[in-house]
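Write out the 3D structure for:
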Amino acid sequence: MFLVKAQDEVIVNVETRIAAWTFLPEENGESIQILHYENGQKNEPHYDYFMGMVNQENGGHRVATVLMYLSDVEKGGETVFPWSE
């Protein structure tokens, strides 16, 4: 689910803080995306760059990603960047 900034004051505040923290203009960011995984679900490894022109025209390649976790669990929920150095 994508959240549209103009729909909620909380979203406006979160996006303002992200822009200040990353030193990137708010208009450069994508809409906030909410993911909810059930037990056993996962997101397959992927790259945040795009080969198709449609995605490149709608913002282009991602240069930064901000992750916010809205739950505190004892096990699971991790995000792994296996090729980062």
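The chain has a mean pLDDT of 78.
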